[in-house]
Specification:
The chain is mainly α. The chain is built from 19 helices and no strands. The radius of gyration is 24 Å and the shape is globular.
Length: about 500
Amino acid sequence: MATVMSNEDARSGNSKLQESQHDTYTNKLNKIYRKLDFRIIPALWCMYFLTSFGSNCYGLTLTMNSEAGHSLAQALKLTSKDTSTASALYYVGYIIFDVPMNLIMTKVSPQSWLARIVITVGIVYTCYHVLDNNKGLIAIRFISGMVGAGTWPGMSYYISLWYPNERLTRRIGYYFTAAQISAAVAGLVSAGFQKMDGVRGYTGWQWMYLVYGVITIACGISLLWWLPDRPFKTTRDYSKSSNKFLKLYSLIFTPTHPLSADEQELHREDIEERYHLIKWTWKDVVEIITDLRIWPLILMYFGVVGTGFGLAVFGSTIIKTNNPNLTSIQVSLLYAPIWLFDLGGILIITPFADKFKKFRAAFFSFACLIIICGMFVTTFAHGPWNKYAGLLIAGFGLGPTVPICMSWSAEIFQPRYGDVGTAVSAALVSGLGNLGSVTATYALYSGWPADKARLYKYSNMMLVVITGASIIASGVCHLIKDKVRQNRND
């Protein structure tokens, strides 16, 4: 009897010891990821804030200082066709270049590539202040999309280098809040720049583009040292190169690693599965494109991003149309809270989407239903303020949808395809999904002049339809994600 009790005590003691060791290991990992958070998330947040700001302020510049006849649309004598074409070509630039830009990123230093994106975006937007005709605007909007291509999928790829999938959605949500804060700040800042209208002969929108471009260039340069490179070296080490230029470049632009040697080893153990397929061929790219699971993800992204950018670009237009008595400054100030509600949706819902990964489709669909509810309210409610409340509801639902799309994409494609699976799936989902943005900005709102008299009723309902399609696509993705190409020989 005593022997039995002794064995039971021993097993109990071993179990407690193993549990204690596991808790210690988990706590160490949590500290490592918190340390990475402090280094990586603020840098990505600033990057996304600035690259999003240009798109957000573009919609606002169409109405800035309109009372004085100095808005971008008035100064360049833009027609509805001009604005819808310029907006559509911006996303065409993304669609064409997202995949090649992200493929390049798998072969080069990722922090240098992300810095390049920010610097070139800043340079292009600085040039906006000299625009004086509609053709120039159409051309520069396409160029803006081209140089900004790879921003969102590039960040999704980069964050997957440092974090395991069960920690991804929350981190993506953290820096995705930058887009919402950027939209809110754009509304507030544009109100201030409208006060500068006429200073030194520049209109308010010219001042905004000029100041924004310079700040973005400076931030892009800082990212060369602010963002760490990869956790482990998988590309050629140029610090040992015989080429003096490459060696000098490596010495100047190689940032310090955020972890100590012991922390790096523990981190490696936790994410080593992420690095089992680093090399890739064009056959892998073709396999990803033909993988049936990518298309539901693209459709999910198509609907929610189409709705999101529709409201981002034309949110101020909707507010003004619903309440014509508002001044342009009041419209800018009312535009900001939509994206603060979006931020609230991210902070509240994305942690649960990470914790309960099996129910990503349910969390995504729930958020989409909130968007649909908001669009119905803003379309059919009585009174301009009730309609405005609908925009706030839609903003809350929009927040968690895109982070869930991107983390789900990495979860599905990384195990089979490795590095290129994460990069290409993110680029395809973002790039082709942006056709939703083209639809919303080219075919709806300003691209549908007859709908203005209906207070954009039909445009709003089209966004409801494509958001509904996103819900259906998420259900399809949930059903087939574990049934398609589960083996490498499929």
